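FAQ: What does the model actually see?

It sees only this:
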Amino acid sequence: MLPDDAAAPRGPGAVLASRIYDGRRWHRDAAVLVADGRVRGIAAMTEVPAGWPQQRLPDGAVLAPGFIDVQINGGGGVLLNDDPSPDAMRAIARAHRRFGVTGCLPTFITDTRHATQAAVAAARAAAGGAGVIGVHLEGPFISPARPGIHRPDLITVPEPGDLDWLADLEGAGRSLVTLAPERCPDGFIRRLAASGTRIAAGHSEADAAAMMRAAADGLTGVTHLYNAMPPLAGRAPGIAGAALADARLIAGIIVDGIHVDPVSVRAAFAAKGPGRMMLVSDAMPSVGSQLTAFTLMGRTVTLCDGRLTGPDGTLAGAHLDMTAAVRNAVTLAGLPLEDALRSASLTPAEFLGLAPEHGTLTSGARADMTALTADLEVIGTWILGAWQQAVAVAPVGDHAR
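And it is asked to produce this:
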C-alpha cells in the first residue's frame, strides 16, 4: 500500500527485494517505504513513488523485520557478567547486529545481588539505544536442582526486599526475569509482574500445577524450553508440558542442533505455532569473535565442535547467533522460513509488549530490518532506517547433522 504522502523522504527511501516478509505474510517483488526512521508502507516495485531513493537488494534476497533476541549472555568477546555496564551492553548489541539482531536483552546470569543490581542500573542507562531493549536477569532466583552452568553457591530464594531493587527494572526498557516459580514466596511473581517486568520459568523443577499458578499470577514465558527442566512425562508434564499446553506462555528455544533435538523443535512448534515460540541464541562471548575459551564466574568454558562446555562437560550457553538459529530452524528442524522469521522477530516483540512497533514491517513500525541472502546469510541491517552492512567474522556454524 502506498503512503498517503508520497513526497521524497528523509532517510533511505525504498528498499526493494524479491521477497519481503512483514512479520505475518510475504510480499513478492516489492519495496518497503521508509521515511524518518519509520515504515510508511509496502508497495510493488513498479509503484515506488517518483523521487524516492531506491536501495535494491540482490536477486533472491529476503527482507524481514529485524531479529529480537531476548537471551544474549555475550558476544564479540564481551561477557555481561564480567562487566555489567552500559558500554558492555552496547558492545554485545553491536556484535550481534552483524547477525541480523536489531534489538536484544543482554543477559546476566546468577551472581550476587550487588552485581545483579549493577546490571539493572546498566540497563537503565543503555536501554532504548544502540539495539539494547532492556536486560534479562537469568537468576539468581532459580532452583539448585537445575543449575546448569550457574554457580550453585550464588543461587538464592527471593525475599520481599528484592522487590524493591527489582522495581528499578521499570526504567530499564522491557526487561525479563527468569526464575523458578516453586522457589518464590506467595505474591512475589504477582507483584513483580505488576511492575511491568516479563517473567519466565527456567532452571526450575516446577510441576504443571505450580506453572498454572504462576501463569495466573503473571508469568508469561519459558526460558530455553527442554533445557534445565525435567523432561516431559505422561504423568509428570512439568514445565515442558505446561509450556506446550498453555497458550498464555511463550517459550524460547535454542536451535543449534545441540541443546534440543530437531524433532523436539518440530514438536514444540507443532504444539504452539510460531506465534508462541521464539528463537533465542543464549549466545556467549565466543560468538562474533575468535575466542575458543573464556572464564565464566570463575570456571573455564571451552569451545569445541560448536559446543561450549564447562570443566565437567555441562553446556555453558551456546555458540550460536540468531541468523544461524533461523537457518537451523529451516534446515535442521524443517520449519517453513516464515515460521522461523516470525519466531525471531514478531513473536519476541509480542512477548515484550513491543509489537507492532517492533517485529513488523507494517505502516508506522520502526524501520528495524534485516536483509538476508537466498542462503540465509546476513547482508545488512537497518535500525530506525539507518543501514549497516554485515561485517565478515569467523563463522559460528550451523551444527548441521
